[in-house]
Amino acid sequence: MPEADFKQFVTTWLPPLAGVGLIAMFISLASWQLDRAAQKEALVALFSDSAAPQRLSEIAIPQLFQPVLVSGEYLPERQVLIDNIINNGRVGYNVITPFKSEPAGEVLLVNRGWLAKETAGDSLPPIAVDTGRRTIAARVGRLPRVAVRPGAAFAETEGWPRVAVYPRLEDVASVTGFAIQPPVLLLSAAVDDGFVRDWQPAQQGPMKHYGYAFQWSALALTVLVVLLWQLGKRVRNEHR
Hints:
Distance between the termini: 29 Å
Helix content: 25-40%
Number of helices: 4
Strand content: 15-25%
Number of domains: 2
Shape: elongated
Radius of gyration: 27 Å
Low-confidence stretches: none
Number of strands: 8
Strand order of the largest sheet: 2-4-5-8-6
């Protein structure tokens, strides 16, 4: 291609092609944000669902926040306290207790709720629970998590309960020696042997994603208006 033709191509066609590419990218990002908003709305709907709980053993694929019933017994000798959990401006722990379920004998983790830190020294709060067989009501959940965890989940200490910083299931399994299976259960507020249980869905709801979708859509519209204005200007110049 001659240099003059190449320059003409760059000046004539490259800007609109780049603009079309930007529009496609912005529309794709807006669509992704709308999809995320729909997912968040579905989670909120599940969390608000007042349907009767089902036996977890009878559910093929448990859904997040789905109400369930599980029979079995706690394994309180190896409990975990997840540190730095904030509740109403106070620092405390989420109390995580292994639970041997029936009839399969799988070990699940039950989040028994939030407990404030002791004000004096490094003493840990009492979290004892008996080992008798029981049926608990809970919601399907997951362990608290952050985007980036500062260091290891567990410190190199001995004794129980163990304090952890945002552990994953595999971290708890490694420390306890139990073959822990998902899901994590959020103990219902109506069930005994729990602590503060003000379970909430995602901290950032669907409106945040709708806002982002609007921003990306507005950018796509802005680029489209600029392209149409430039096209109209070129047409007017050619007809002079």
